Amino acid sequence: MLQIVFDALTLGSLYALGALGIALIFGVMRLVNFAHGDVIAFCVFALLWPSVDAVAIVFAGNLPWYLLIPFVVLVGAGLSVLCEIVVFRRFRDASPATMMIASFALGFVIRYFLLMLFTSRPKSISLLPALSQPVEIFGARLPLLQLITIVTTLLVLAGLTIFLRRTRFGLEMRAAAENFAMARMLGVRANRVIMLAFALSGALAGAIALIFGSQTGTADIQMGAAIMLMAFIATVIGGLGSLGGAVLAGFLLGAASVVMQVVLPVDARPFRDAFVYGAVILVLLFRPQGLLVARGTKERV
Amino acid sequence: MSNATTVDTHALDSDKIAVRQPSRFSLAGRTIWTPLLLSLLLVAIAVITFMIGSRPFNQTVIDVFVRVILVVGLYVFIGNSGVMSFGHIAFTCLGAYAAAWLTINPAMKKISLPGLPEWLLATKLPYWQAAVLASLFAGVMALIFGRVLMRLSGIAASIATFAVLAMINAIYSNWESVTGATSSVVGIPIVRTIWPYMIAAVVAVFIAWAHAISRSGLALRAARDEPTAAAASGVDIPRERLVAFAVSGAIMGLGGALMAHSVGVVTPDTFYLGLTFTTLSMLVVGGMGSLSGGVIGVVLLSALIQALRWLEAGVPIGDSTFAIPKGLQEIALGIIMIVILALRPTGLMGNREVTLFRKKTK
Amino acid sequence: MAYKTRLLATALIAVSSAFPALADDDKIIVGFATAESGFMEAYDKPAQDAAMIRIDEINAAGGLLGKQIEVIKADTKTDRAEGAKAGLTVIDGGADLVVVSCDYDFGSPAALAAEDAGKISFFLCAESVKAGIQGVGPHSFSASVLAAVQGATMAEWAYNKKGARNFYRLLDTWTEYNKGICDGFDWMLPKLKDAKLVGQDTFKNEDASIAAQISRIKALPQEPDAIMLCTMMPGAVSAVKQIRAAGINAPILNGSSMDGSYWLSAVPDLTNFYVPVQGSIYGDDPNPDVSKFNAAYKAKTGSDPSSQYAYPGYVMIDVWAKAVERAGTTDADAVVAELEKMKNEPTIFGPRTFSAELHHQNTTKYEIIEVKDGKPGVVDSWTISEPVPLEALLK
Amino acid sequence: MSLLDVSDIVIRYGRLTAVRGVSFSLNEGDILFITGPNGAGKSSLLRAIAGVTPIVGGSISLDGKSLAGLAPEDIARLGLSMVPEGRHVFGSLSVEENLLVGTGMHVGKNGWRARVASDLEAVYDTFPILRERRNGQAGLLSGGQQQMLVIGRALMTNPRLIAIDEPSLGLAPNITDQVYERLMALRAQRGLTLLIVEQSSTRAVMTGGRMVLMRGGQIVLEGDAREVGTGDQIQAAYFGYEDH
């Protein structure tokens, strides 16, 4: 039982962090950023030296952890901010559909850029190998990594909450997320807030890359896609613009997935995702505005 | 003045005037040029292809026609309702598999898809009959899903449509005895002549046009541009959306059936995110507010892709060959799409239609 | 004028590298409709390089039927619709043999185009029974061995050599290949006296975490004697890593797709991990010819093969060329007839058999690779006691 | 020199022209009412001054500095605080947080912390109800309280000019009285310049000050509110009896 809770929390953590990255950007510019998954993949590949060989040539991946973690997080933040400056800045006034397709095209560019440098063959990396040990906790034997994933996520969430609640940047971001035009009329600098949102979102992508990379031991250009999709769904059912809702929904999706895997009979297990998505439709029908509705968020899609 | 922000380009376009009831006949007469010109474009492409006579190029153009059908299908719902849908490829999937069920040799079907009902196992139809039935099947399924989904609007509707796609994909990827799960369903008769695809694309264009000028299509576009006003004047938005959803589902199904016949194999992963985004991109780049935008988006982007492939393969310039590195084609395509959207956020066509009389549209 | 039209057509269709050669009686043309970009490229390229080695050898030795073999290529871009085009392109270029992508799903559009045109098609390394008569038609073959043989081989070998009795089966439902391995395992298991399945589960290759599946294994009263893991890259690495991280140390049995040392760094000091291979890339194959091939491969591409999947490419040209030689023509029906006469035809990478029912291998000798402390090496070789019957393959 | 100069500006939405050639100027400490019927272009004018809506012709300058091409946040930082129609409180933020959003522009200036703290006290003194509710969610305030909050929030930027769009909209008359009372007191205390948009001229007449009347995107009447704000002349102008 305890095991199931931990499993659900592990998967939910990844989804929650992903959903947060999408919700942050959606909040300030109503952009559903489909490039987010590719930013995650990019962060993992940043650890490798470009090569078309099957064997990965590890580059930054050999750094000690206290340098490795900031490195990956900074790569994520940097790339994300770059996307904003080069691409998304030109789409401030565009419709959500246009922005969405632009973000998709951008993700496409990042993906094929990686493909050109690294080929499509998934590469193996040993990221933070010390974490692959099992530990005993409350009578359940868990991989250390699972525990660290959960703790990291909780720390990131706590850190982000403090940042948003206690700092001026946080205040401006929350105001901007709720009513961007009004915040600007009060002197809140649009570009700075949006860049900050992108930086945070990118940093979260870096965090996911680290967790996911050490969990799977693989760098694959497609790796961000599955998390990105779930995160996107979590953002919507959580209530667009509501960061708390995104996190909650991320954990719920993780839990739903794990619970279905446990309770479904073996023949029905391959259909797990069909049940999960069915549940998503039900949630949307009963709470079209999402689980937690951000007050004052006007829908524009 | 309070709603100055919503008084925007659509405010006085011909749709709204049309809602104020001119004669249906004159409306059809005024707008018929759009489907005619688009069809002319498609026919011209087909004839040129036929004259060139290269088999690979023929196949390329068949692909373009299939995409035209799919994007026109998307336009019928997304363009008219303004609601983004990520789920329409689900109906393409339904159509493709339905076509497979109806056309595969019964002897082969008994082995590979034993879970099909007896009457279906025994059926073998010509591909065009199968395509019509597949399209109807997809349309009916769209009607069923739509009844539930059309209560939603905005991004909740978008996600719900995606959830439908993901559900159908999960089911078709695992229902071993009926869909063959993830393995390719084979034995679908391959049709390599270009004409059926051209005819289907032209038919799709005309269906989209007929829907757009129907009472339902006009009401839906009025609701897209001014939801409050439309609702106040008695437009039942969910119902009009449902009509568009079913019509577009049927067109997507037709596209799926033809796609199956163009390649000869179907697998569930063909009908998932990749195709969803390719077709959506073509629609948005072309201009999702107009039928012409959809068709022209497909033709131009397909031409662009071919041109880039050609560059990738190498172009002889004098004695040397100029070629862009492998893989750069996709990167260039992505960048060009971003540039087009940055310059023309409403797509190449905006909300305009091609027509002979420029005054009638804006 | 005709030349101009053709040039225009060629330009438009963007044929890669070669311009369509006219049907030329002085040479024999092999057309590769394979992926030069996209994710299949990583699988097609090594096998294609190996095929080129055999072609170069044949050309150096005076050619086939006294003619040089010429190669034309068209890129499928790892896309089915593009695959059909690529197939048509090489057929228009006059290909006598159409070589298609490694995977059945991605290779079949081109193979179907070849079948339509009455040409022989060969899948580079597809391991589904459909890659051949069953899924394409009477002129289609695969150069590799059925996935089911791999599952059956591992089950029987572990039963006999590792004393395994309690098996656990973990299936990744992503591809037919994965299911094929488990099908072979399922067919073999009841034949092994006292062996039983103590549990089974499924996952998806892209699952971010398989924690729930692992918890189920750990909930068993005792750890199974062997875990049959039917999956492939990239999810396989993640699955193995998570299984070991959870403290499960039972032997893990796999299909050939997990061959190669390039991924082992992801699971440091991996032990008790087994894969069947057609030949060893680690320089320790009992057959010296395999090592000789490895050297030739390194000379051509600059590195050793990264997995056993290079080998089928070589085998393909080898058996096809023999059949052409025996038939005395490249005519498709005559060559097919010669290929179908092959019974245990020796090749460097094990014997090959084709029949009028099956253009694929339903039994072969496999080398067993064991990964121990992170080091892979040949420990044994095994041939299943009876071929996997067609009924089990088509189930 | 006047504080705000609006000269001959034109605003278009697509093919629809909302404001056609409006000019006026405003001196430090002035109060100007812009009145007119729905659709006259009042809000557009205000949004253009705040930099939210682009203008296609004419010019706007604040303290002699042209506002052309400036973003709303830059204009706010020059000392123009806009209170748009419909109040727009940040509903999920607390009352105090709402007040603090606009103080970002002071960060880093000499002694800004003390300044913000004293500004906050001043706003609380002006609107005691806000002090009472300082930690409550702003979305839960009543309409009148929200109106006070947005005015207080605008004051926190230390503006030289406040532009308010329909402060009385949706408020009971006695609450509106209170709001105006506070505004006038602030004007007296701080020498604040006020630009107020209202549909009817009643408030302008009650409060006094200059008034312009807009209709069809143009100024059709202007003068001292108490002089022009009553009688037939304004009736005619408001409803467009005479042709211009």
Key attributes of the depicted protein:
heterotetramer, A: 301 residues, mainly alpha, two-stranded antiparallel ribbon, two-stranded antiparallel sheet, 6 strands, B: 362 residues, 17 helices, 2 strands, ABC_transp_permease (chain B), membrane (chain B), Branched-chain amino acid ABC transporter permease (chain B), transmembrane helix (chain B)
What would you say about this model in short?
Chain A has helices at 2-29, 36-45, 65-86, 96-118, 144-166, 168-178, 180-185, 190-216, 223-238, 243-263, 272-286, and strands at 48-49, 57-58, 123-124, 134-137, 140-143, 218-219.
How would you characterize this protein structure?
The complex is a heterotetramer of chains A (301), B (362), C (395) and D (244). By secondary structure, chain B is an all-alpha fold. Chain B is 69% helix and 2% strand. Chain C has helices spanning 2-13, 41-60, 80-92, 104-116, 130-134, 147-161, 176-188, 211-218, 235-245, 288-301, 311-327, 332-340, 390-394; strands spanning 27-34, 68-75, 97-100, 120-123, 140-142, 166-172, 196-203, 226-230, 252-253, 273-277, 365-372, 375-383. In chain C, the strands form two sheets. In chain C, strands 7-6-8-9-10-11-12 form a seven-stranded mixed β-sheet. The longest helix of chain C is centred in the first third of the chain and has 20 residues, at 41-60. The termini of chain C are far apart. Chain D has 244 residues and is an alpha/beta fold. Chain D has one domain: P-loop containing nucleotide triphosphate hydrolases (Rossmann fold, 3-Layer(aba) Sandwich), CATH 3.40.50.300. In chain D, helix 3 packs parallel to helix 6 and helix 6 (143-155) runs parallel beside helix 7 (173-190). Chain D is globular and about 50 Å long. In chain D, 46% of the residues are buried. Classes of the chains: A mainly alpha (301), B mainly alpha (362), C alpha/beta (395), D alpha/beta (244). Chains in contact: A-B, A-C, A-D, B-C, B-D. At the A-B interface, helix 4, helix 9 and helix 11 of A face helix 9, helix 15 and helix 17 of B. Chain D: It holds the Pfam family ABC_tran. Chain D: Keywords: Amino-acid transport, ATP-binding, Nucleotide-binding, Transport. Chain D: One of its GO terms (molecular function) is ATP hydrolysis activity.
